């Protein structure tokens, strides 16, 4: 581990998980072990969370609603 806390993921594991540079990762503590998995995109997490109300959409409002739902989902996991 580097002084910045960075760790190199071996090429075999990156390939198996389909990871590319700049992909986001999810770290989950399980006792004294860490589980590592690709993080789903924020767009995927929020897809379908907002029902269309009007056209054109109020995108700042849509973004706020998606972020609120994601925050609630994360809080529920803790």
What do these coordinates show?
By secondary structure, this protein is α+β, with helices and mostly antiparallel strands. It folds into 2 domains: 1-39, Ribbon (Pemi-like Protein 1, Chain: D), CATH 2.10.260; 40-78. It has 3 helices and 2 strands; from the N terminus they run αββαα. Strands 1-2 form a two-stranded antiparallel sheet.
Mean pLDDT score: 84
CATH class of the largest domain: Mainly Beta
Strand order across the biggest sheet?
Answer: 1-2
Main sheet makeup: 2 strands, antiparallel
The tally of beta strands, per DSSP, is 2
Q: What is the number of helices?
A: 3
> What assembly state would you assign to the polypeptide chains in this entry?
single chain
Query: Outline, from the CA principal axes?
Result: elongated
- Radius of gyration equals 17 Å
Binned strand content: 15-25%
Number of separate structural domains: 2
CATH topology of the largest domain: Pemi-like Protein 1, Chain: D
Uncertain stretches of 5 or more adjacent residues: none
Helix/sheet category: alpha+beta
Percent helix, as a range, is 25-40%
């Amino acid at each position: 581990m580097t002084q910045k806390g960075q760790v190199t993921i071996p090429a075999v594991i990156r390939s198996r998980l389909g990871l590319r540079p700049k992909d986001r990762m999810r770290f989950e503590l399980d006792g004294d072990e860490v589980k590592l998995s690709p993080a789903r995109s924020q767009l995927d997490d929020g897809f379908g969370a907002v029902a269309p109300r009007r056209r054109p959409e109020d995108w700042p409002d849509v973004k706020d609603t998606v972020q609120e739902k994601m925050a609630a989902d994360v809080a529920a996991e803790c």
